[in-house]
């Protein structure tokens, strides 16, 4: 069940227009929606529907052309690029399809990386804590090429949590995984959600989306519909290392 204490994300009339020479392309058209703290939401839609543009805006990687985006009480549409980057680093955890891990360093160093930029003295201890949270304490000193795909994604999830973000954005987090590993990752997402973390997942797989509480469907740059999942999927996880 969600721990709902008001919206962590509030979008009001969000629009995004790109210019391609003399042509204007409206990627988003008047999107208004709120996500409460502790919710687990899936975003689905065909290619060109606007879901990737929306994720870039939610992740503070891009700004809307019009509209207001309130993230954890901050109107990020009015921030400078520098302040936007600061909000992005402090309030958002990212999980990507391709894991985006540094190949030549350990899982521990990959998780600690966001803190190392700030010369945080407790970086390694906090990174080890997050690895324990995803069941990978004993893999802390393994490099990515010594880990399975599912384990690499767990490392990426641990890294996304290192700054205690207001929201975790997962862009096709199971796209490079087999079915068993995909189920394990989504079970982990559900566990984090049960701890009060707000999670937004972009996926093209209905079976993945059904692990969430709600599915938002996009079409032609607009929110087309919303579906409430009364009984989210849950596949009994395979055994992982005890924390």
Describe the structure.
- The chain is built from seven helices and ten strands.
- It is an alpha/beta fold and 243 residues long.
- Strands 6-7-8-3-9-10 form a six-stranded mixed sheet, with helices on both faces. Strands 2-1-4-5 form a four-stranded antiparallel sheet, with helices on one face.
- Helix 4 crosses helix 5 and helix 5 runs parallel beside helix 6.
- The longest helix is centred in the last third of the chain and has 16 residues.
- The two termini are 23 Å apart.
- The mean pLDDT is 90.
Quick gist of this model?
With 243 residues, this protein is α/β, with parallel strands linked by helices. 30% of the residues lie in helices and 28% in strands.
Principal-axes shape call: globular
What is the share of helical residues?
25-40%
> Oligomer, anyone?
single chain
- Classified in CATH, the superfamily is P-loop containing nucleotide triphosphate hydrolases
Number of helices: 7
Mean pLDDT metric: 90
Q: How many E strands?
A: 10
Q: Which sheet architecture does the biggest sheet show?
A: 6 strands, mixed
The structural domain count equals 1
Round the Cα radius of gyration to an integer and report it: 18 Å
CATH topology: Rossmann fold
**Beta content:** 25-35%
CATH architecture: 3-Layer(aba) Sandwich
Order of helices and strands: EEEHEEHEHHHEHEHEE
Under CATH at level 1, the class stands as Alpha Beta
The main sheet orders its strands as: 6-7-8-3-9-10
């Amino acid at each position: 069940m969600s721990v709902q204490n008001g919206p962590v994300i509030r979008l009001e009339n969000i629009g995004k227009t790109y210019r391609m020479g003399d042509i204007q392309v409206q990627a988003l058209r008047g999107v208004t929606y709120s996500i409460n703290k502790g919710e687990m939401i899936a975003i689905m839609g065909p290619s060109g529907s606007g879901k990737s543009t929306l994720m870039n805006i939610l992740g503070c990687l891009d700004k809307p052309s019009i509209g207001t985006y309130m993230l954890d009480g901050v109107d990020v549409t009015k921030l400078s690029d520098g302040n936007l980057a600061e909000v992005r680093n402090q309030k958002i955890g990212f999980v990507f399809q391709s894991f985006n891990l540094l190949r030549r360093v350990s899982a521990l160093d990959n998780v600690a990386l966001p803190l190392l930029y700030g010369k945080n003295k407790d970086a390694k201890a906090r990174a080890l804590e997050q690895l324990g949270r995803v069941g990978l304490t004993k893999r802390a000193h393994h490099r990515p090429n010594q880990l399975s795909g599912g384990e690499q994604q767990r490392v990426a999830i641990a890294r996304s949590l290192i700054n205690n973000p207001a929201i975790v954005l997962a862009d096709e987090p199971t796209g490079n995984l087999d079915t068993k590993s995909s189920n394990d990752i989504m079970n982990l997402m559900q566990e984090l959600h049960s701890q009060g973390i707000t999670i937004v997942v972009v996926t093209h797989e209905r079976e993945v989306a059904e692990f969430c509480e709600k599915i938002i469907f996009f079409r032609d740059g607009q929110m087309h519909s919303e579906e409430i999942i009364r009984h989210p999927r849950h596949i009994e996880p395979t055994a992982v290392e005890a924390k």
